[in-house]
Amino acid sequence: MTPGSVITADDIPSYIKGAGPALQRNIFGSALLKEARREFEREFISRKLKEFGGNIAKTAEAIGIERSHLYRK
Q1: Spatial contact of 18 and 44, defined as CB atoms under 8 Å apart
Q2: CA-to-CA distance for 43 and 35, rounded, in angstroms?
Q3: Which helix (H) or strand (E) holds 53?
């Protein structure tokens, strides 16, 4: 699914490139599963909101939760 026969760094979407060591440190630096889950969820929702231009309704639909639930988070 790339123009050439070899996948290069330019072929990788920016949202994947951004999920590097910083996110891993935040999640794996947590002592408890609950903390790691909360940190992952925060980062996931933040990135999805950016992807959908801050539109809560579209973001909620895309990630499969109710809009009111996303507002609470």
Answers
A1: no
A2: 12
A3: none
Q: Which amino acid is at 6?
A: V
* CA angle (46, 39, 33) in 5-degree steps: 150
CB atoms within 10 A of CB 59: 20
- Verdict on whether the full-model pTM lies above 0.70: no
> In angstroms, rounded to a whole number, what is the distance separating the alpha carbons of residues 40 and 1?
29
Distances (CA, A) of 23 to 17, 32, 33, 40, 68: 11, 16, 15, 8, 26
Give the Cα separation of 3 and 49 in Å (integer). Answer: 29
Q: Calculate what percentage of the chain has a pLDDT beyond 90.
A: 38
C-alpha 22 chain-centroid distance: 13
Under a CB-based contact definition with an 8 Å cutoff, are residues 22 and 29 in contact? Answer: no
